[in-house]
Design brief:
Strand order of the largest sheet of chain B: 1-2
Helix content of chain A: 25-40%
Radius of gyration of chain A: 27 Å
Mean pLDDT of chain A: 94
Strand order of the largest sheet of chain A: 3-2-1-5-8
Number of domains of chain B: 3
Structural class of chain B: mainly alpha
Oligomer: heterodimer
Number of helices of chain A: 4
Low-confidence stretches of chain A: none
Largest sheet of chain A: 5 strands, mixed
Distance between the termini of chain B: 20 Å
Mean pLDDT of chain B: 95
Shape of chain B: globular
Order of helices and strands of chain A: HHHEEEEEEEEEEH
Number of strands of chain B: 2
Largest sheet of chain B: 2 strands, antiparallel
CATH architecture of the largest domain in chain B: Up-down Bundle
CATH superfamily of the largest domain in chain A: Cupredoxins -  blue copper proteins
CATH topology of the largest domain in chain B: Cytochrome C Oxidase, Chain A
Structural class of chain A: alpha+beta
Chain lengths: 270, 586
């Protein structure tokens, strides 16, 4: 084992590449060059906070371990030194096991409150309820109308060409005033409960500004809630592979003032 | 070397070509068969990904050999499905475990073959049938399925009504996957039996190379996980062909037509799929962890740091791997309350992963590094595993998953950690064991060029992909024109695509090196790396019974490098204590 045989430019190139990779990654992650638009809900802000905390922890772990790797590769390249014989060190094992366990599990426990604020709470009594029905490759949103009740649905009556895309049963009086529209309009600063349904395959509902993503599963009605705090026009996309037209499946969320929302309902969704 | 061998009964070596090279029961031939099957699959899978990236940038461009001249969105989605299926099953599950494991597990524990050689042959040929069924999906009417490698039902369960490729193509996919499950179950049984029963005298569990531990834990995971996918696959097959409704609820309507199903649950498929699918991630990476540990220790000329901790960590990863599948389903409609448990369990799996990383760094600390090509890929493995693993901390939290689920962030994460890292493990294994398998060295200069291009290329493709996902870039979109906020992300896509083209081209260097070295490589001796484990005490390639009748006994652990007082800087596992030369190192 001559030393010359193992002298290698890799001892310098590998650490250099590691350094460049770490620098570029950290720079872009913290520059906010690529980031979702600002959240428009309190739950969204809590999610962002949790994201930031996770980013801080992972950034430290990332930089230390990747540069640590670069350092040991550079330092312990073969330059004729003697190997420091060691089979390990139980104190160190215990130390880094405890440290990572506390950090990682701590993150999970802390993150729970952000998830709870997004998904686990009782609906408020004045929540606006909207039923979301997805099918290949469109969204339909149903409001219960002045009677506050959704009419009965019958899948046999679904006929998009006759203007009944969700299969409203015309024999149910509760359904006569239901409003069915292809975009979602909600009032600002009021809780909204979406009742997610699908007619055919699994679809999803994703609005970046809400930090909200939920699959629509045929056979289930999945409730999700949010309270938008900023008036605006936002894109809604399907994120669950649903077939040929998946990448075209999108609609809009309009967050409007209370007055405009009242007018929207009064005009039957116009 | 082995003065005190023991005898083992070994069947005669076959003589005819068919029995020797085609329907062989020799684990070494079967390992090589698996290796070349995986190599074929990785070439196909990689070409599919090139076509996908080409389509994303230039959706209207002419593609010469495609029907119709321009790639359709259906064809794009079928590429997504087939790329994922090909890579996960026929590359990441096939090469590290069935390929290298088959070849080296028996030799490393001092056995003449697998416990059940005929079962081993059957496993390979059933896997080969599975491969043919999958390839056939391209050629049936309507082409390959479009439901992704996860095949979520009802999209995959209802038949042609749900989209192109969902007729025959999807059926062929299910047949392929079910056959693959069957073959993997047989293989896992064989690995476990061999490792439990056929270790050489003195080869206690805690003296096994970490590669063997990797293959062993993987085999246990395979046995427990693939059985569940097989059951799921059969139920899905029945839903499609026999009118059952395991995964199909009432009231499904396709193009205004009510479907005759009722009573099933689409979420049941997801539970079954991910109960398999998450352990599958570890099935892909654990053998790579074994190889990386093995190679790091050998080329550091230093014992692995914390052998026992490494073994415990691998077993912990294997165990925890079975209780985290729900993190794929945070936004699926599953109860939000279960998310907390799955989240904590998933974060917990980061702990043994971190232990392994620290131990790799500990191995490098105070060492004397030889930068041979296998070592470069092992170092790359550690780097990529850390980068890919850390982004998992985001996805393990349901709150953050609300933002990142189904975006390219996920694609970046799993490509780095289970794709590229595993493949680096396989490259390390190939460069390391090629001399043993074929008796010749691979060209080190070409190997180094291959490494630098692949290492830089992999980061250039998959690191920016995180940013694409963070900005809301959604995976499995055949077309980026409909959603307005996706438009500004095109330069990022373009950068990744060019990086992918360069990286893929660099793989030609590897292929050339592989085939050139088979014939023209420098002849390798028994032990070109001065390594310690049992595969290096026999000829390259080993004889039919692996040890030429001189079966070794084992006297020490697998990584005895630079032991104080010993004259050589390595002590083979089979060397009797009285024969270890003492004195100053030469």
């Amino acid at each position: 084992m001559t030393t010359d045989q193992h002298r290698s430019s890799a001892a310098f190139l590998f650490p250099l590449l590691q350094f460049l990779m770490v620098a570029a990654t950290v720079y872009v992650f913290f520059s906010n060059k690529f980031a979702p638009p600002a959240a428009i809900t309190a739950a969204g802000a809590a999610i962002d906070h949790q994201y930031d905390m996770t980013l801080a922890v992972t950034a430290v772990a990332f930089v230390l371990s990747q540069l640590g790797l670069a350092y040991v590769v550079l330092k312990y390249r073969d330059h004729g030194q003697k190997v420091e014989f060691s089979r390990g060190n139980n104190t160190l094992e215990l130390l880094w096991t405890t440290l990572t366990a506390v950090l990682f599990l701590g993150l999970a426990v802390l993150g729970h409150s952000a998830w709870a604020s997004a998904r686990m709470f009782e609906p408020s009594l004045d929540a606006v309820r909207v039923e979301v029905t997805e099918n290949q490759f469109v969204f339909n949103f149903r409001y219960p109308g002045p009677d506050g009740k959704f009419g009965r649905l019958d899948p046999k009556k679904i006929d998009a060409s006759l203007g009944n895309p969700i299969g409203l049963d015309s024999t149910d009086p509760a359904g006569t005033d239901d409003i069915v529209v292809p975009t979602l309009t909600v009032p600002v600063n009021q809780e909204v409960e979406l009742l997610m349904r699908s007619q055919d395959v699994i679809h999803s509902f994703f609005v970046r500004e809400l930090r909200l993503q939920q699959d629509a599963v045929p056979g289930l009605i999945v409730p999700v809630r949010f309270k938008a705090e900023k008036i605006g026009h936002y894109e809604v996309v399907c994120t669950q592979l649903c077939g040929l037209g998946h990448s075209q499946m999108h609609t809009y969320l309009d967050v409007v003032s209370q007055e405009n929302f009242a007018a929207f309902l009064k005009n039957g969704g116009q | 070397m082995s003065a005190h061998g023991h005898t083992v009964h070994v069947p005669e070596a076959p003589t005819g070509f068919i029995r020797k090279y085609v329907f062989s029961t020799d684990h070494k031939v079967i390992g090589i068969q698996y290796f070349f099957l995986a190599l074929t699959s990785v070439v196909v899978g990689m070409l599919l990904s090139v076509l996908m990236r080409f389509h994303l940038l230039w959706p209207g461009a002419k593609v010469p050999f495609l029907q119709g001249g321009v790639m359709t969105q259906a064809q794009y989605l079928s590429l997504v499905t087939m790329h994922g299926t090909m890579m996960v099953f026929f590359v990441l599950t096939t090469a590290p475990q069935a390929g290298f494991g088959n070849y080296f597990l028996p030799i490393q524990i001092g056995a003449p073959d697998m416990a059940f050689p005929h079962l081993n042959m059957l496993s390979f040929w059933v896997t080969f049938l599975a491969f043919l069924s999958l390839i056939a999906a391209f050629f049936v009417p309507d082409g390959a399925p479009i439901s992704g490698w996860t095949a979520y039902t009802p999209l995959s369960g209802i038949g042609q009504a749900s989209g192109p490729g969902e007729g025959w193509g999807q059926t062929m996919w299910i047949v392929s996957i079910s056959l693959f499950c069957l073959a993997s179950l047989l293989g896992a049984l064989n690995f476990i039996a061999t490792l439990i029963d056929m270790r050489a005298p003195g080869m206690s569990l805690m003296r096994m190379p970490l590669t063997c531990w990797g293959w062993f834990v993987t085999a246990v995971l395979t046995l427990l996980a693939f059985g569940v996918l097989l059951a799921g696959g059969i139920l899905l097959f029945l839903d499609r062909t026999a009118g059952t409704s395991f995964f199909l609820p009432a009231g499904l309507v396709f193009t205004d037509q009510l479907q005759p199903h009722s009573g099933g649950s689409p979420l049941l498929w997801q539970h079954l799929f991910w109960f398999f699918g998450h352990p599958e991630v570890y099935i892909a990476i654990l053998p790579g962890m074994g190889v990386a540990s093995h190679v790091l220790s050998t080329f550091c000329r230093k014992p692995i740091f914390g052998y026992k901790a490494m073994v415990i960590a691998m077993n912990a990863i294997g165990f925890l791997g079975f209780v985290v599948w729900g993190h794929h389903m945070f936004v699926s409609g599953m109860s939000p309350y279960s998310a907390f448990a799955f989240s904590v369990m998933t974060m917990a799996i980061g702990v043994p992963s971190a232990i392994k990383t620290f131990n790799w760094l500990g191995t490098l600390w105070g060492s004397k590094i030889h930068f041979d090509v296998p070592m470069l890929f092992a170092l790359g493995f550690v780097s990529l595993f850390v980068s890919g693993g850390l982004s998992g901390l985001f996805l393990a939290q349901p709150a953050v998953d609300n933002l990142l689920h189904a975006t390219y962030y996920v694609v970046a994460h799993f490509h780095l950690v289970m794709g590229v890292a595993s493949i680096f493990g396989m490259f390390a294994a190939t460069y390391f064991w090629f001399p043993k398998m074929f008796g010749r060295m691979m060209n080190p200069t070409l190997g180094k060029i291959h490494f630098w291009f692949t290492f830089v290329g992999a980061y250039c493709i998959f690191m920016p992909m995180h940013f694409l996902g963070l900005s809301g870039g959604i995976r499995r979109y055949a077309d980026y024109t409909a959603i307005s906020y996706l438009q500004p992300l095109r330069p990022l896509t373009m950068f990744m695509t060019y990086a992918a083209f360069v990286t893929v081209t660099a793989q030609l260097i590897f292929l050339f090196n592989l085939f050139w070295s088979l014939k023209k490589g420098e002849v390798a001796g028994k032990n070109p790396w001065n390594a310690t484990t049992l595969e290096w005490i026999t000829t390259s390639p080993p004889p039919h019974d692996n040890f030429g009748g001189q079966f070794p006994s084992v006297y020490r652990g697998p990584y005895e490098f630079n032991v104080p007082g010993a004259r050589e800087d390595f002590i083979p596992q089979n060397l009797e204590p009285s024969q270890v030369a003492m004195g100053a190192q030469s």
